[in-house]
# Entry
Amino acid sequence: MSLSGTGLKKRIVEMIRLDGPMPVSLYMLTCLHDPRDGYYATRPGFNADFTTAPETSQVFGELLGLWAAHEWIKLGSPRKFWFVELGPGRGAMMADMMRAAASVTGFRDAAQIALVEASPALRQQQKAALAGEAVEHFGGLGDVPPGPALIIANEFLDCLPIRQYVREGNGWRERRVGLDTYTFEDIAFGLGPPAELPANLIPVGDSVEIAPGIETLVELVAQRFRSEAGRALFIDYGPDTQSPGDTLRAYKSGQQVSPLAAPGESDLTADVDFPRLARLAQTQGLAVHGPLAQGYFLTRLGIKERAVSLAKANPARTDEIAAAMQKLVQPDQMGARFKAICLSPTGAEPPPGF
Ligand code: SAH
# Structure
């Protein structure tokens, strides 16, 4: 029987034959970041598969730029600071933030743009989108040198690899990707031996998932803010009152597809566990602002006023600007499912929007 599917699927089947079933996290990591066939590594035109807020409207990045300028002033307008974006995609948000924040005297000269990006192809796109700005790329937040930092990430946490656990009887088993037991030629989900649930995980229901990378990231932020001033703002999707169950999803050409169907050719994502993120941050001694629905956050930052003035300057685009704004704030679109959360050293006033 011949093996159908992509080159990456064939390699994953080989990996499983050699090493046994893999945790969902390793599957996700391979699909997204494999240097030869990974989704982010090879598909820089990913907005055909899904559209993010900065790709929906320039107003999103502009508001966040003004937010950053406000917080820079709150930090005492340091002469130099790291303006960090995690997972900048095609670079649109940083370009919009810089354009808007440049209206605040001194901000542009103080901002040292640090882009944390894994994909070489996307690094090139980010450089092109930010031509005229001095940008530095880093592999991880831990590599960004000391100094005050404003850290911003949109739709970054949702692509950190997750591990999944399923309740069986009184115990838990980890969900894994193995070979399907009919042909042993294709991949299928299965369960591993009985396993302990990771610490800091409060399960709701019979399936639960966890992104270990979020804990590492919160620790890095906390470590940094013990000696340096700063804020870390994350915007992403996920429930705000309970831990997500099984939310692994794949998107290809705007459609949801099976996460196993086309490894490396579809975006893989999972809901962010905001309650856990907040708990981890508090345990690390950080102040936590939010999580708050994106619709409220953007409305409080003045999205309506900004959209009106943008439409005045571009009357022919009025309908398009209004539709994009609705998409970002309406609860039945992105307004409620997406949340904003901000971590800061303790004692900091709530930032704008919170
Ligand atoms: N923020 C952008 C793109 C979101 S897609 C937007 O809102 O449009 C996720 C981004 O994170 C991509 O740029 C991807 O390559 C990057 N990324 C994902 N995991 C990463 C990791 N572990 N380290 C660095 N970058 C990562």
Remarks:
- The longest strand covers residues 171-179.
